[in-house]
Design a protein that fits this description.
Its cofactor is Zn(2+). The protein has 442 residues and is of the alpha+beta class. The chain has eleven helices and 18 strands. Among the domains are: 153 residues, no CATH class; 63 residues, no CATH class; 85 residues, PDZ domain (Pdz3 Domain, Roll), CATH 2.30.42.10. Helix content is 43%, strand content 23%. Strands 6-5-7-8 form a four-stranded antiparallel beta sheet, with no helix packed on it.
Length: 442
């Protein structure tokens, strides 16, 4: 394995590592704080709140008697409640010397269930808070549509469209509030009718749905070929392309055969060879479609000015986004279990998540914050899976206790916990092997 070829896949390696660890710390910290604060509200004493594992780098004890600490391995965290031997490497024998009601094991069923459920719930709350803020500040497009900024484009196109231009028509097609690009003729460049400084005039602008790289998928052809955000595809196998739809058609028609992409970047033009791969594509109406892809999505060559949304409207949009993430994640898990989609193509481990985080970091702060929201929802949901050792496994035990009026026997619980731990470790090892396999195949 040639590490000199693998390392470039992580982009700016220090930024990738820092971005991933920061995201993980925020998500895990919020998750564990949910356990901690709800447990405290329920009268359960937390002995330790730890960010990270291993040797303790810093710690302090608060007025409630909880030791807050930062450990050397920033790959997770935990809360250890009094009398709970599952949350940390050592058990809590302090339960023998205090009010049993303050221990995790002796607390009422409702208190234990609320404390366990709080972790994933706080992850979902974090997701909604982030998405609400994004929708509030991103806002909605103002009317009339007004250009905010333009991406760098080939000088040969003669683009004269400028920031602050109010777009009235594109390619002769009226363009106003609620308009789309569907009826705009596929041509590059295009005539635009705009209002500039109160004067209506004709200018030259790009076709809106350009094959302009907006984001990349790790370990697919575009990423492996070295394409970057902002690259413009001008031809495929020598045939000029003006629209992303033309690139998609060429990739689909290739049936996996290699394609030569002509790419414009910062005033230079060069060729790259890309080999499409068959992948599972989630569909808006649900389900998956297998198709040939090279692994990039397009972006508009310009942005429009926006105005903030109200809190209520932004919150509603954030809740819709959370519901979408939850339902699609459940669908993906179910499809992998039933074999409808390939786990080998769709499952990511820590290395894959770090790589994806690094690519998102390079796209900007807004995308990075949105990525944290997405990861938080996904981690909260995965923690609710009914697997012993996860929060969902504990909740299953509590449901059993509520129905039968007796707890799962200790020996059975420990055996199931051990089985759950083995299963989780096997899944992590499998995902890691997939990550390494993708890197090694580069």
């Amino acid at each position: 394995m040639d590490f000199s070829q693998i390392l470039p896949q992580f982009g700016n390696l220090p930024l990738t590592v820092l971005g991933f660890l920061l995201a993980l710390t925020i998500i895990v910290g919020i998750h564990e704080y949910g356990h901690y604060i709800v447990g405290r509200w329920c009268g359960i004493h937390a002995e330790v709140f730890s960010l990270g594992f291993g040797p303790v780098l810093w710690s302090r004890v608060d007025k409630h008697g909880t030791r807050w600490q930062v450990a050397a391995l920033p790959l997770g965290g935990y809360v250890r409640f009094l009398g709970d031997a599952n949350a940390a490497s050592v058990g809590g024998d302090g339960a023998q010397h205090t009010d049993p009601r303050r221990t995790m094991t002796s607390a009422p069923l409702w208190a234990r269930a609320a404390t366990v459920l709080a972790g994933p719930v706080f992850n979902f709350v974090l997701t909604i808070v982030i998405y609400t803020a994004i929708f509030m500040f991103s806002g909605k497009m103002i009317a009339p549509p007004t250009v905010a900024d333009l991406r760098p484009l080939p000088a040969t196109w003669g683009v004269t469209l400028a920031p602050d231009d109010e777009v009235l028509a594109i390619g002769g097609v009226p363009f106003g509030d609620g308009a789309s690009f569907a009826d705009v003729p596929v041509q590059n460049p295009l005539p635009y009718t705009v209002r500039r400084d109160g004067v209506q005039m004709d200018v030259v602008g790009p076709y809106p749905m350009l094959p302009l790289v907006g984001s990349l998928v790790p370990n697919l052809a575009a990423h492996q070929a070295g394409l970057q955000i902002g690259d413009v595809i001008t031809a495929v196998d020598g045939a000029p392309v003006a629209a992303i739809s033309q690139v998609i058609s060429a990739v689909t028609a290739s049936q996996g055969a290699s394609l030569t992409f002509t790419v414009w970047r910062d005033g230079t033009t060069f060729d790259r060879t890309l080999v499409p791969r068959m992948i599972d594509l989630p569909q808006p109406e649900g389900g998956y479609l297998r198709d040939w892809k090279v692994g990039f999505s397009s972006a508009l060559p310009f942005g429009f000015k926006t105005e903030p949304l109200g809190v209520g409207q932004a919150f509603a949009s954030a809740a819709d986004m959370l519901w979408y993430v939850v339902t699609r994640t459940f669908e993906a898990i179910g499809s992998m279990i039933t074999g409808k989609i390939s786990a080998a193509d769709n499952l990511q481990g820590m290395v894959g998540m770090a790589q994806s985080t690094g690519m998102v970091v390079e796209q900007g702060l807004r995308d990075y914050i949105g990525w944290i929201a997405l990861l938080s929802a996904s981690i909260g949901l995965l923690n609710l899976l009914p697997i012993p050792m996860l929060d969902g496994g504990h909740l299953v035990f509590y449901i059993y206790e509520a129905i039968t009026r007796r707890r799962v026997p200790d020996k059975v619980a420990w055996a199931m916990m051990l089985g759950g731990l083995v299963l989780v470790l096997m899944l992590m090892a499998f995902a890691l092997s997939l990550d390494i396999g993708r890197l090694a195949s580069w």
